[in-house]
Predict the structure.
Amino acid sequence: MNRVSSLSSPGIIILSLALWCSAPAALADCQSDPSWFPHSQTPEPGTTGFNSNCKFHQWSWQAFLWLTKEVNGKPLFLSFSSPNSLIDDVPYRGMIPRMQKSNTPESFNEFLQAGTDGIMVDQQGRAIYYSQHIDSNFVKFILRNKLTDPAVVRQFNPTTNFPDGTMELKVSWKIVQPGDDVSDMFTMDGEINKLVNKDGKIVVDPNQRDKVKLALVGFHIAGVVENHPEMIWATFEHKRNAPVVPANVTPTTVVSDQDWTFYKANTQYKDCNVNYANTNKLTLDEATQLLRPSTQACRQFEFGNDPNSENSNVQQNDANIASLNADALKHLDEDDVWRNYFEVGAIWFGPNASELRPNMSLATDGDLTGSLKLSNATIETYTQTQSTMNNCFRCHNTMQAFPGNPDLAPLPALNINISHAFQNIYFWSQDTTDAQ
């Protein structure tokens, strides 16, 4: 497929498979379905029949293939709406205005990582940007229930869930710089808001925009299926993003002797995944848009689980991912750019989980199954080892959410608060001025 397409705002070393799809010790025979191929004809994934660990990962892979198949000259997901587009008279806020569940006032930003306000900086000194996309089921649900009206939201039934089939996506993008090798990445032209220094912080300036080429490096997929209103949360990465942390690592262990997209060869473990945004060391040159220092990213858990775990469910989960990655990729044409991406993992509620409920601050470990420490190296770089934020449900839950602007009303506890896209819509609908 064509690796370069055009997208108007808003919206916006080849390695052996053994290096990033190595099979764990457990045996698995989790395979792709022949109906998924050719990629140009991948059907939309179904929402029923989730009776085994493999089925959830098959849903994840089929969703990825369906979302990335070419339709009218571009991947299908680029035709999805942005949350911003559902609100009348709201100015363009960049690729992804984000909302964090926090009592601390937050600004809407397109480059901060959820939970940490971390800024990921590539090896060339540019920030990683994020876009958010919602499918037609999401859009119809919001509009049918008039949930762009904050007064309606505050009276909404707290136990109502998104309908089966609903999807929301979060995508991470690297700004392509001269000399970058993006031959095996999906790239597109887009626009971003420039960064500025303001009140001792680095923020986006919505009045300054820049046309750039973007390379896709990470892909979150969240979708509602039968009996899983909490959604399946799956994540994919480009194969050259970052090395996997080896077993028995020490602070001075060199994670890899090779360069990766977001890792400099021979970097020690203690220097991986350091969030310089929380220190006074991160600086921005506004004229060049370059930040220093760069982030040295490492993937803490290869398939979102502790590789030393003796839990048979964990071992089976990881083996299923490795098996399915290898099988799905071999069915993609060699010139298909998406064969350079792989599933890191997926997480969802297990059969004995508590019901999704308002005021659920955190799902307990017993509620969850799949990849229990799931992170994307480009989207959750700085939460990979934090037990309070080391999987999707640490941020995506049903608790009350507080606005970025203290003058706005908080979002009451609702089941649909599981979606950060919905939260954005709620707060934007109260505020038609710039949120900075």
The first helix runs from residue 17 to 20. Residues 1-25, 96-109 have pLDDT under 50 and may be disordered. The radius of gyration is 20 Å.
